[in-house]
Design brief:
This protein is an alpha/beta fold. The protein contains 7 helices and 9 strands; from the N terminus they run βαβαβαβαβββαβααβ. The chain has one domain: Tetrahydropterin Synthase, Chain A. The strands form 2 sheets. A 7-stranded mixed β-sheet has the order 7-6-2-1-3-4-8, sandwiched between helices. It has a two-stranded parallel ribbon with strand order 5-9. Keywords: Lyase, Metal-binding, Zinc.
């Protein structure tokens, strides 16, 4: 069984080394739509793959990091990176280019890490990310699967290689959320008092 949750954010970037001069030489923005698709082989006590309400915490916060922010590749020109940090309170530094393809890989990577470190409390079982689709425009999107995240030819992803501005971190429900993720600490879902016998 699969479920889909839609997230949205507005983000600015430059995509270095791409074919389009407009994209590689000028800061520009997009209204992104992100489809997070989860799957499981059984349903929880509420007969759900995963309660949509649970996606409003750490996973929503990490995706929302991109909203009204500028995202840049850490390999970019140091002067450009300094300007991004100096003139934008909200920024995200990535070890890969901020292309739609890499946004889909990064969001998959983050969501998967959060789910793996989540202590489930309502009978959830084997909940995993099936795919992430990032719509950059009304006509174009990138779709990522687990093999794309693991493919180092597309760029190696490590949790410690991302950086968020203080303003981004301050707006998370837990400003230490990413530190907990890096340190392997548990995200604990709320306990549920069952109203119907599920045995």
């Amino acid at each position: 069984m699969r479920i889909r949750k839609l997230f949205k954010f507005e983000n600015a970037h430059i995509v270095r080394n791409c074919s389009s001069n407009r994209c590689k030489y000028s800061i520009h923005g997009h209204s992104y739509q992100v489809e997070l698709i989860l799957q499981a082989n059984r349903l929880d006590h509420g007969q759900m793959v995963y309660d949509f309400g649970l996606l409003k915490s750490a996973i929503k916060d990490i995706i929302d990091s991109f909203d009204h922010a500028i995202t840049f590749w850490q390999k970019d020109d140091p002067e450009y990176i300094a300007a991004c940090k100096n003139f934008s309170a909200r920024w995200v530094a990535m070890p890969v280019s901020p292309s739609a393809e890499q946004f889909s890989r990064v969001i998959f990577f983050w969501a998967d890490a959060i789910l793996q470190q989540t202590q489930m409390q309502n009978g959830e079982s084997d909940v995993m990310v099936y795919s992430v689709i990032v719509h950059e425009t009304a006509t174009g999107y990138a779709q990522c699967f687990i093999e794309d995240v693991q493919n180092e030819q597309m760029g190696k992803l490590n949790l410690a290689d991302f950086e968020f501005s203080d303003e981004v971190r301050a707006e998370w429900h837990d400003p230490l959320m990413y530190n907990k993720l890096i340190n392997g600490e548990k995200f604990i879902n709320p306990k549920v008092a069952l109203q119907v016998d599920v045995s």
